[in-house]
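Escalation from tier 1.

The customer reports that the assembly of two entities below gives different structure tokens on two consecutive runs. Tier 1 could not reproduce it. I'm attaching the input and our single run for tier 2 to review.
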Amino acid sequence: MDKRSVDTMLEQELARVTAPAGLWDRVQLPRVERRASHASRRLTWALAAAGLVLAVTGIRTSRPPMDFRSGSASEIQAWVKSNSGLDLGLPAKPGTSVQLLGAHLVRGADPLVEVAYRTGNHDVLLRVSRSGTVPSEPHGDRTASSWVMHGQRYTLACASPEELQAACLLCHS
Amino acid sequence: MEGTEAHLRLNSVFGMVQDANDREVIQACQRGDADAFRVLFEGYQDRVYSIALRYSGNDATAMDIAQEVFLKLLSRIGEFRGEASFESWLYRLVVNCCLDHQRRGRRVAPFLDGLLDAVCTSAESALHALMRAERDQRVQDVVGKLPPEQRIVVVLRYTEGLSYDEIAEILGCSPGTVASRLNRAHKVLERRLSHLREVRGGANG
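Tier 1 run:
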């Protein structure tokens, strides 16, 4: 069979055909289903988001299990240093409205420490790690503030934006 | 869309814009105009379905591919910027859907389809049924056995009648590559179709 015959045969046998009438219905149906599922998906997402906010708030405000309980800044610093190698850099005498509670060592490949304290009626967590070793809290988050200093990442977390300012009293009273 | 009023409206849109490549239709689609999308669908459904059918060799698979193409078209029409022609952009969408479909393993080779049909036909002898199935599938079978990159070139060339340059633009390769693939496909087809013609002659005679 020569090239010309193949050409002719291909032109005949592979010619364009008419699409079946049901194609439009098949294009339409998923769109309707998709619209319905989008609505229910939005509700699901809203519920999930609400749950997440509650969960995050709960995690942030609930005190972590304490590995070391102490109200002394120097004792907490020494314990953290010996168990994680991190230097907290806490002031020797925090403000009078600050009550240190203790520290929790988060087990993992890289050292991460959470220091719990109260200022007024607010529970606060100060999370310290080597910079770049853990996912950072988003800057500008109204209930968290993060910064890097002397090669360490510090993150303050509390339950509400108002408490964040009070949380700073640990070092800035 | 149902009823006479809707039909008239559709016809009005059709009359207003006969050429689906018209920028107004595409822009209307981009704004979410359902009637404009229907115009686009009507204008291109045969091309899309034909490419899918000739590439897959199977009606059901072709419907799946065509459906996927139009749903993708609907969701991605906003990405069309008019830098290339709309036809080329759509053809690229079809080609990608065909290739994706095959990669996902959703397609049974046409030859195997025919074989399964033949085996399932209890009234005929297996050999006769196999020969009949092979005759029925004819060129489509042989095309279906080509490697995907050759097959899509053959389909775009013979189903759509596109030039080497147009195919090259759609596939993102050079016209020389298109010519080379088509040449290789031709050699395979010449050999296999000759054999097929003998089988057909034997079966008929």
